[in-house]
Amino acid sequence: MNLKLGVNIDHIATLRNARKAAYPDPVDAAAVCLASGANFIVAHLRKDERHITQKDIAQLCKLFPKKIHLECAATDFAEKIVLKYKPYSVCIVPEVPGEVTTTGGLKFTPAVQKRIFSMIEKLHKKHILVSLFVDPVAADLRTAVRLGADMVELCTRQYSEAKTPKQAQKCVQELALSALLAQELGMQVHAGHGLDYHNVLAIADIGGISCMNIGFAIITRSLFAGLPSAVEEMKNLL
C-alpha cells in the first residue's frame, strides 16, 4: 500500500516572514506540493503566527478545501480560526512557550482532556476530522478514542533522535504496536516528527500507518533539488 504524504509548509512561511516580504508564498508552495504528489498540506497555526498566519489559512482552505490538515493547540484562538475556515482535518498538538518545534505528544491532564473533548465536539459538528498528536503509549491511544478523535498522529521524535540502531529498533517496535492498537480502536493512524529521507523507510514499513506528515526535511531538500523533486523523492520512498 502506498502511504499518503502530508507536506508541512511552515518553513516556507518562516522564510517569507524572516524578510517581512510577500514571498515565498506558502499558498504557492502548497500548489506545487500537491501537483508533485503530496496528498495533503500540513500547516501549524500558532498563536504568535510566527510562520503560518490566519491569512494563509484562509487562502489555503479556500483554494484546497479537501487538502488542508491544520495543526493547532486546543485554545479558543485556534478553535475560532478552525471553525471559521473549516480545513479538511485538524491535528490538536501541545504547544510550549518558546519551543522551536513541537516537543512530544499531548499530556492528557484532566483539564486538557476536558478542553479537547469540547473542541472535538464543535469541530465534528462542522464535519471536520480531528487527529490528536500522541506519543506511542497505549494509555494515550485509549484516551484519544475516548475523547472522540478520528485519528492519531504518532510522534516519531524518539525514533528520529535515537542514538543507536538498538534504540531506533525499540522505537519502531513501540510505534508498530501503537499503530496496531489504534487501528483496533477504530482510528486512522498518521506518523510524523523528525522524519527524513534516511530514516523514513523503517516507519513506512509499519503496517497500519496511512499517512506520513513531513516538513523540514522536504523543504530543506528543496533548496538544492527544487520543491517538485523533493516532494516526488519522498513520495517515491513511501
Please explain how this structure is put together:
The protein is of the alpha/beta class and 238 residues long. It has a single domain (4-237), classed as Aldolase class I (TIM Barrel), CATH 3.20.20.70. The chain is built from eleven helices and eight strands. It has helices at residues 10-19, 26-35, 54-63, 76-85, 110-125, 138-147, 157-160, 165-184, 200-204, 216-225, 227-237; strands spanning 4-8, 40-44, 68-72, 89-92, 129-134, 151-155, 188-192, 211-214. An eight-stranded parallel beta barrel has the order 1-2-3-4-5-6-7-8, surrounded by eight helices. Strand 2 (40-44), helix 3 and strand 3 (68-72) form a beta-alpha-beta unit. Helix 10 crosses helix 11 (227-237). The longest helix has 20 residues, at 165-184. The radius of gyration is 17 Å and the shape is globular. The termini are close together. 39% of the residues are buried. The mean pLDDT is 94.
Compact description:
The chain is of the alpha/beta class and 238 residues long. It has a single domain, classed as TIM Barrel, CATH 3.20.20.70.
Biggest sheet details: 8 strands, parallel, barrel
Low-pLDDT sequence parts: none
DSSP, total strands: 8
Structural class: alpha/beta
CATH topology: TIM Barrel
- Classified in CATH, the superfamily is Aldolase class I
Strand order of the largest sheet: 1-2-3-4-5-6-7-8
Q: Which descriptor suits the 3D outline?
A: globular
Strand content: 15-25%
The CATH architecture category equals Alpha-Beta Barrel
Range of helix content? 40-55%
From the alpha carbons, calculate the radius of gyration and give it in angstroms: 17 Å
Topology pattern, helix = H, strand = E: EHHEHEHEHEHEHHEHEHH
Name of the CATH first level: Alpha Beta
